[in-house]
């Protein structure tokens, strides 16, 4: 599942991450006296290790998200954390293609101190297998056993590698016990949205059926050909990439409530008749001139600009990814915001089964073998995972961004007002509410989170009751240089090339030919091996999760 990928600008309302660059002092910069001090601290597993040394240090932190816009140290929250812990962060963010930047760094054999990327990225395995990142459990054992106190055992177990070590820790992760505890509050990021004023002007059409869907796009284009002098874009989607399009894969399949397994055997959702019927519906929409060329080429920055201009009629898009634009629209004209409505559905009209937070989370954070100070790095990571660190990252500094009001620690009124009005301005002015989301715990944060307000509330509420946990299906795809990993890479690349062609096909017959070719290419790439690998991993996951429920 690629939940978050964009994520997600933020599962709870926003946020981003810090990063760090390589230094030439080869691993440990601590003098022997400090090493002794580290060992002494290790003797007390009940005390946070970061308190032993708060001298100034700057870590380079690489974030594999080109859209991440924030800098550490310009807002009071990050300044407060640096003053308290001594740790300053220098974020490194790729200017263009994320994978090219990270692949270049991996090939060089030198990495920044911390690295944060989506858990689903092939490069996670490459870095672990290449010996480029350090085992967190061993760092903790040596320098900060308090890590064991604050790390979730289920998440540690989930990310433990065959060698018995854990190299990455997730953000926005929910274990089975989290689901038991917070189940009724769990929401999904997956929404189908329409521009409220246009949708209502069209008589709130039913868009659950292929006919209703296409008719609504057509009616919107006819009634609203332009938005402020620019052409209306009837349908918006996540960006097309080398391996496909999130909106048109797991996202659409979840809206159609296509099962992920049947009787314990993984189900091939890509060949499901409902799924193919809806892809053909989109092909038909394109033939009718209802899919703008923009959607095949635009990246997230271009899409954000067009969302803020209100140029999309409908979007199959993650709600938190356009929260900042939505707030800006709402401030100008509450009637022109995007609202969640029932979108594509299967022939029975079943409600969607939307992806909620899973144990894998959204991103993982790793510590490089080149880290300039091992002790300080693991202690800072432990601090960020602890309730103290989570509260600092979420609420900021008492008296500055939050106070105890009516017996509860919560944002000051003027801080909350900006958070609800302009997320980007809030991030820059205050840096709280997980502006820096690298290790945010979206369940722990619920104790401080203010209640959702419009325009976010409607989107969030719409997903409640439709949200499911799909942890057992996470991390079942082979990665890396194994035979199955190479086959999986070829298959995803083949689908990435085929998907836009399917939508651009001149007829259903051409669509069928293209899809048949993809299935043949998939088979010759080694699909049977991939399938066997996925089934084995899925079976292991089911057993693992049962163990966490005990």
Please characterize this protein's 3D structure.
The protein has 550 residues and is of the alpha/beta class. The protein has two domains: 49-175 and 360-446, Periplasmic binding protein-like II (D-Maltodextrin-Binding Protein, domain 2, 3-Layer(aba) Sandwich), CATH 3.40.190.10; 190-356 and 470-549, D-Maltodextrin-Binding Protein, domain 2 (3-Layer(aba) Sandwich), CATH 3.40.190.10. The chain is built from 23 helices and 17 strands. The chain has helices spanning 32-42, 76-85, 98-108, 122-129, 136-143, 146-150, 153-159, 176-182, 196-201, 210-223, 250-255, 273-287, 294-297, 300-308, 323-332, 374-385, 387-395, 413-421, 423-429, 456-463, 483-504, 508-525, 527-549; strands at residues 57-63, 87-92, 114-118, 168-170, 190-195, 226-227, 230-231, 233-237, 261-262, 265-266, 312-318, 338-340, 354-355, 363-367, 402-405, 408-411, 467-468. The strands form six sheets. The chain has a five-stranded mixed β-sheet. It has a four-stranded mixed β-sheet with strand order 8-11-5-12. Strand 6 (226-227) and strand 7 form a beta hairpin. Helix 21 (483-504) packs antiparallel against helix 22. The longest helix has 23 residues, at 527-549.
